[in-house]
Every structure is written in structure tokens, then in C-alpha cells.
Amino acid sequence: MKDLTHSYLFMRKYNILIILLVGFLTFNQAQTKQITVEEIYKGVFQTEGMQVLRSLKNGKQYTILNRDRTDGSTRIDKYDYKTLEIVETIVSSTDLEGIESFSSYEFTEDESKLLLATEVESIFRRSTLGVFYVYDLASKNLTQISKTKIQEPSISPDGKQVAYVVANNIHLFDIASKTSKQLTSDGAKNTIINGVTDWVYEEEFAFVKAYEWNSDGSKIAFLRFDETNVPEFSMDVYGSELYQKPHVFKYPKAGEENAKVTLHMIDVKSGDISKVDLGEAYYIPRIKWMNNPNKLSVQTINRHQNHLKLHTVNAKNNSVEVLLEETDKAYVDVTDNLTFLADDSFIWTSEEDGYNHIYLYSEEGPLMNQITKGEWEVTNYYGYDQNEDRIYYQSSENGSINRGIYSISSSGKQKKELATKAGTNSADFSSDFTYFINTYSSATTPNIFTLHNALNGKKVKDILNNNGLSTKLKEYEMSPKEFSTIAINGNDLNMYVIKPKDFDPSKKYPLFMYQYSGPGSQNVSNRWNGANDYWHQMLASEGYIVACVDGRGTGLKGREFKKITQKELGKFEVEDQIAAAKKLSELPYIDEKRTGIWGWSYGGFMSTNCLLKGNDVFETAIAVAPVTSWRFYDTIYTERYMQTPQENASGYDNNSPFNYPELLEGKYLLIHGSGDDNVHVQNSMRMIEALIQANKQFDWAIYPDRNHGIYGGNTRIQLYNKMTNFLKTNL
User: Fold this and answer.
1) Rounded to whole angstroms, what are the CA distances from 455 to 392, 538, 560, 662, 669?
2) What's CA 223's distance to the chain center, in Å?
3) Strand partners of residue 443
4) What mean pLDDT comes out for the span 470-475?
């Protein structure tokens, strides 16, 4: 009996121990789930935000585009800044006949009408076609602008007419009579474009709408593109039909002819069109009306993009004067920071003193004052409050990987810190600069939205956070980004490292590097990033150490650091990545025989070069949508940094990886979308052929009809699983 009792007690204790152990393991597993590719690209970790935020002119209220999660309908809700409560729903798609939802909206100047966008489809990166309506807030009347899909509609300042582009011509729609008239007539596909940009302007000067109303609605200034002599590029679209179809569009590659771009003026009442003579203007990257309805500002820049002129055009007689000129031995950046004050003096940003700063110029052009100074960069200009004489901006003065929000007087004095917590702060100001909504994030904190007083930065209220996401992520195996600098080639380069959660310094780990490295870019930043960060976390949980280094040529460290790569894209950047990999491999816990690198686009160009030129350092590389020769890329981007191939042949060829395929020693995965209108699949095909003729083995994947982003359906899931499996096999 005693023995049986002892045995019973032993077994009971043993079973309890097993239950506790299983429970502990189950609890531990619940706390340390591994992120999966499927979860990343099915939106499990998406952040919440404030969609299409618009501040109303009264400065007391703002509007948000909200979507119903059950039926997909959309509505525009008006909120009060002081209470953050909904004042009213301005319009809901459920109340509009024939409209399931709308994706964006714009107010007229007097906020009496809305321009609603529906059925929007992409053309290229920024350009779209859509069905647009004008909604009258008082009468609740809804008016469709055109039965066909149109581009870039814009309501006149008096709210009575809508200009838009269809089939490369500018049209004018009268809201009251519901009639349209065509203002230009020579638009034709792949020949003449009026009022919207060609492919290369859209991609590299980052705008599509190439026309602007003046302040009283009497004039429309527009750009006309003559693409006649621009070489055509053709991509096969495979689709689901029996025969694939060619997609042909004008694409000027480096050294080839660009569209001839000219400036024109429409007199709205008469419909008369006149041409403005800008002399030898090669590119016209910006047009903007001044407060005076008869004064138009126009920026022009030469082909090398190192001599920019700001002109003023008198709309009464089309006479032109030069307000400002800026030159640089490398290139001059084109921005959207130009702001005209009440007297048409203007705010301008420039790298003239070696860092990007804010300047104030008089109406006639002479410099009045450099407003900001220091060895840091102004990264965003938010606006000017004339009543308080305060300029609001974002900068990196709280550390090159951080962003803070500041205000300063036009004299350059009385600077105030408004939101400078380590991380990334960005602001959306009320129209009267009473409030701003701050969006804050860091490498460990997803987006938080808070309301602040604009004069002193004091937080008024919390608006929205992503605590739900933060809580969810606690269930997963997550490792912090460790920020530091690394001394490479005479520079302290910004770096982050992600180590496995159970990191043991006595063990050896493979090193997997990630970078982009393009001119002025930044990957090492203290902010909440997207899908690639989750993938890197997943790799860390698989036992990889992930590192990212921003080498020479990247941004936020001054002009000289950024522009050192001029005429030599792929030289200094590659040297820095190779040197960083060597130095990191000296760490006792890095396996120097297991070093990989990857990147997308410019990053793919870099990872390919690193594997070839650093074949004694890197064992593995993944290149997604890479440039393999800058001869294949567009004029505006490439020539800004390289000049033309005719002028700089060695700069193009010495760093083009398909010129030295024999250097391949490691494992290489090359990926491209066949429908990439940006970095053409031609780049990868030429690389593939070079590797074949060098008798080199490699892996590759072509994604049919996918563009530069390679997405749609399950595409990203398949792509990232492919890359993951490649790494597990080869690194």
C-alpha cells in the first residue's frame, strides 16, 4: 500500500510537471511566434492612419476620408480640432446614386463644392485615369464631369468650371450648364501631350498635372510636350489572350532625345492660346502662379541640371524676367518648397551653404535673408504664418536618422522646438497655423497621431495610435534595431543591425546586408518602416544578422557627402558596402564565410556590383529589378548624376555589372517584372546573357506583366518566399 501510494504521488507530481512544462512551452510559443511572409503581405501588420486629411479654411476643423470596413463605402467626415469629435458627415457614398465609393476628394476655393474621384486606375507610378464628379454641399447635387475617364481635373477658383485632360488635350467643363469644350486640339498619343507630363517628367520631376489656374480664374498656364523625336520603348503584355500585345510608349534613355517642352497661356474667356518664350529652357520642372493673377513663376533647368533659373512671366503680354539663378558643380535639386508671401516675396530652399536650408527673397529677386543655418538638413517646408511671422519646417537637426518639427521667424531668430522626440515627427498644420497634427513613429513605435498647439508645440490631445498593432507584435519574435555608426573610408556611416532574439555572442551567425544607396536616399532612419522590416525580422528569427549601412552618396549629411558619387554611380557606394561587410565580418559572432546582400532597383544594381566586385567578401546576393547599365535608364535621373554617355562613357561602363560577369563567384538570384516601365526588364536580360556567355550559374525569376513594384494577387508572397528559400539554401 505504501509503495502504491508513493508511486501514485510520484506519477501525480510527474503529470503535473508535464502539464506545467507543456503549458510553459505553449505560453512561450504564444509569446514568440515567427512572422511569416503570408502574414506580412496579407496585411496582418498594417498600421492605421488618417486618410486624406484636409484642414478647412476656418482653421478650426478638418476633414478625413473614412471607409466602412463592412461594405467598403466611403464618407468625408468633418472633425473639430479642439474636441477631435465628428461635427458632421459632409457626404457619404451610400447617399450618392451610382457611386460605391470614392478614393480622394478636393474642396473648391470657397469650400462650397467637392471634387470626388471614383473608378481610379493607374497609368504609371503617379498618373491615373478616373471618373470624377462635382458635389455641391448646399444643394447636394452630384454632377459627372465626363462620361469617359479623365486625368487631373482641377476646379477653377470661382468654383464654376473644371479643367481636365483627356486623350492628351485640355478640356473645360461648365458645372452649371453641364457642357464641355476642348481648349487644345493637337494632342495625340506618343506625339503631343497638353496639360499632363510625359513618362520621364512624371517619374523624375514627380508631377503629372502640367497646368495651373491663376488666382482669379482668367488664365490657365500649361506645358506642351512634343514627343515626336523621342525613341519608343516596347514591352510585351502577356495577359490571358492567345497573343501577347505590345505596349509602346516614349522613353528617352540616357543620351537620347527628350520631348521638346514649351510653356503656353490660355485666356479662359476667349479660348485663345499663346506661347511664352523662355529662351533656351531645356527642362521646365515647375510652374506656379504668384498671388498676383498676372504673374506666373516658372523654373527652368539645363540638360545637365546644374543651372536652374526661376523666371516670372507677365500674363498680360507674356514677357519674361529672371528672378533667381542657382548653379552647382554637380546638380541643383528641384523641390516644391517655393512659397510666395502676401507681397510676392518668396521662400526658397537651397544647398548653397553645403546643407539644405531656407532662404527669403524679395519680390524682385535679391536675397533678403538665410533663415536657417547649421550642419543639418531642412527635410520638409510646411508653410509661413504671416500673422505671427513664423516659418514651420521639418529637419534633421535632432540627429540625421531623426526628424523634428520646428518654427522660426523670417529673420532667422526665435527658433522653437515643436516636436523633437527621437524618432520621426511629421506635421499637418491647420490652415491658420493654430494647430498641427503630429505623426510620430520610431523603429519601435508604430504611427501615433497627436494634436499640438502650433505656437509652442504643446500637446493638446491624443488622436489615434497603433497600440493594437504593438500588442499584437508582442506575440511575435521581434528584435530591436540597434542604431550606431561604422567608420568606413574616412566617414562615420549610419548603420542599424537586427540580431536574433536569442542572440549568443559565442556563436557564429550569417550576415545579410540590405541597402538602396541611391543619391540622397536614406534607409537607416529612426521610423516605423514597412514590409521589408517585417521580412528582416523574420530572417533574424531564422538565425540571420541583418545589417543596413548608408554609404557615401546617400542623404542627410550635407552636399559634399551626397554628391561625391557624381559621374561615378556605383563606385564609392559599392566600395563602402564591401568595406562595411569586411569590417562587420571581423566581429567574433559573424561567420565571415556566410555574407549576403540584397536590394531593389538602385539597391539591385548595388547588390549585383557588390557580389561581383566584392567576390572575396560576399557569398550571396539578391537583386530585384536592378539597373545593370545606366545606359538603359532615363535621361533626367541618369544625366543628373552622370551627364550623358557620350560625355562620360567610362563612368557608365566601369560600374555596369554586365561588363564583368566573369567576376561572379557566389550565389546570385536575379528577379524582374516583365512589365516594368521604369527599370526595363532589358537590364536583367542583358545581365542574364552576359552571365550565360561567361558560363556562370545563377538563379533567376521573371514575373509576367508585373511593374517595378512586382505586386498583385499572391505575387509578393511568392516572391518573398522565393527569396527566403534562396537564402536558406545558399547563406
Assistant:
1) 10, 43, 35, 62, 53
2) 24
3) none
4) 94
Q: Hey, how many other C-beta atoms are within 10 angstroms of the C-beta on 116?
A: 26
Which residue from 285, 260, 389 is spatially nearest to 337, judged by alpha carbons? 285
Contact 247, 234 (CB under 8 A): yes
Q: Is the distance from CB of 310 to CB of 333 less than 8 angstroms?
A: no
Cα torsion for 265, 268, 272, 274, to the nearest 10°?
-10
> 6: pLDDT confidence band, cut at 50, 70 and 90?
very low
* Structural Rg of the chain based on CA atoms: 28
Please give the average per-residue pLDDT across 232-255, as a whole number: 96
User: What is the rounded distance in angstroms from the CA atom of residue 436 to the CA atom of residue 407?
Assistant: 12
Grid-cell match 448646399, residue found: 138
Across-strand partners of 265? 221, 274
593-616: per-residue pLDDT in tens? 999 999 999 999 999 999 999 999
Please give the C-alpha separations between residue 220 and each of 22, 125, 175, 263, in angstroms, as whole numbers: 73, 25, 18, 11
Q: What residue type is assigned to position 669 of the chain? A: L
Dist CA 621 CA 514 (whole Å):
10
pLDDT at 318 over 70: yes
User: Position of cell 555608426?
Assistant: 485
The rounded Cα 377 to chain-centroid distance in angstroms is 18
Are residues 525 and 424 in contact, defined by beta-carbon separation less than 8 angstroms?
A: yes
CB 650 within 8 A of CB 642: no
- Rounded to 10 deg, the angle between the 715-730 and 531-541 helix axes is 30
Angle between helices 572-585 and 602-613 (to 10 degrees): 60
Residue type, 494: N
What are the grid coordinates assigned to 290, written together? Answer: 504668384
- Give the confidence band of 530 by pLDDT, cuts at 50, 70, 90: confident
Spatial separation of the C-alpha atoms in residues 65 and 93, rounded to whole Å? 11
Whether the Cβ atoms of residue 677 and residue 706 lie closer than 8 Å to each other: no
Could you tell me where the beta strands, DSSP code E, fall in 629-698?
667-673
Q: What is the spatial distance between Cα 372 and Cα 500, in angstroms, rounded to a whole number?
A: 42
Q: Which residue has the higher pLDDT, 501 or 27?
A: 501
> What is the SS3 assignment for 15?
helix
Sign of CA dihedral 167, 171, 177, 178: positive
Give phi and psi for 480, each to the nearest 5: -70, 150
Please, which residues have CB within 8 angstroms of residue 616's CB and are 6 or more apart in sequence? none
Model pLDDT, residue 531: 87
Decide if pLDDT at 560 tops 60: yes
Which position has the grid cell 486640339? 185
Reported pTM: 0.93
Mean pLDDT of the chain: 94
pLDDT range class, residue 103, cuts 50, 70, 90: very high
C-alpha triplet 346, 62, 117: angle, nearest 5° = 90
Whether the pLDDT of residue 5 is over 80: the answer is no
Residue 670 Cα distances to 215, 264, 659, 705, angstroms? 51, 45, 16, 17
Q: In whole angstroms, give the CA distance from residue 438 to residue 452.
A: 7
| Residue written as grid cell 499640438 | 452
